[in-house]
Design goal:
Blueprint: H1 16-22, H2 28-38, E1 58-59, E2 65-66, E3 72-76, E4 81-84, E5 98-103, E6 107-108, E7 111-113, E8 118-127, E9 134-139, E10 142-143, E11 149-150, E12 160-169, E13 174-180, E14 187-189, E15 197-202
Antiparallel strand pairs: 1-2, 3-5, 3-15, 4-14, 6-7, 7-13, 8-12, 8-15, 9-10, 9-11, 9-13
Length: 204
């Protein structure tokens, strides 16, 4: 079946771009989105005024999608964290104090606060002065289920520990990273941009 041209109730003399801005009934959401992308028209962030649009999504001619406002961050430990309580089962975490980037300003000193409800991915690494036996992520100050990774204490790389997790969060939930070792309440986490870092991103 040949493509049908939808009917637009618009002014008779308008540009294609003006037609897309004023009309769209009959195209459906996917068709309209495709035409808008082909014209280089960008979605606006919620609350942006018509006079000052904010780019929230871009679809290029190859179909690649970028979302410059998508919450994400990368931080590392710029100063040694001494007296870290690895023995704790509560709200003790590595205080990653140096942001490389923080889109949305949701990370602060090792704690990420979810700006909206959604599914998030996190990865954290730590270089400590002695080995940790396992690690997990804390959510709202408590160890969260199904986020543990265990390590072998006789591993030659035992002073390096890392972990990753996918978490479904509510708005304002907080997330941190906790390396654990029973009986060690005064561990040092070494400042190192390559080995002590924390990253996260909203998946959707």
């Amino acid at each position: 079946m040949a493509d049908q041209i939808p009917h637009f109730n618009c002014d008779p003399i308008v540009t294609r771009r003006q037609m897309l801005q004023r009309c769209g009934t009959g195209l459906g959401s996917l068709g309209l989105a495709s035409l808008m992308a082909s014209e280089g028209m960008l979605n606006q962030a919620a609350g942006a005024s018509a006079g000052s649009p904010t780019e929230a999504m871009r679809v290029d001619s190859a179909g690649r999608i970028t979302k410059p406002l998508q919450p994400s961050f990368h931080a590392y430990l710029g100063t040694n964290q001494t007296g870290y309580n690895a023995n704790s089962l509560g709200n003790h975490y590595i205080q990653y104090d140096t942001d490389v980037y923080d889109i949305g300003n949701n990370h602060s000193n090792g704690i990420f606060t979810a700006p909206i409800a959604g599914v998030y991915y996190f990865r954290a690494e730590a270089y400590t002065n002695t080995y940790a036996t396992q690690s997990w992520f804390i959510v709202n100050g408590s160890r969260t289920n199904a986020s543990d990774t265990a390590y072998r204490s006789n591993d030659t790389n035992a002073n390096f520990c890392g972990n990753s997790v996918i978490l479904k969060l509510a708005a304002n939930d907080t997330v941190g990273f906790h390396p654990y070792r029973s009986g060690n309440s005064s561990m040092t986490v070494n400042a190192n941009a390559n080995h002590s870092w924390f990253r996260g991103i909203l998946i959707g």
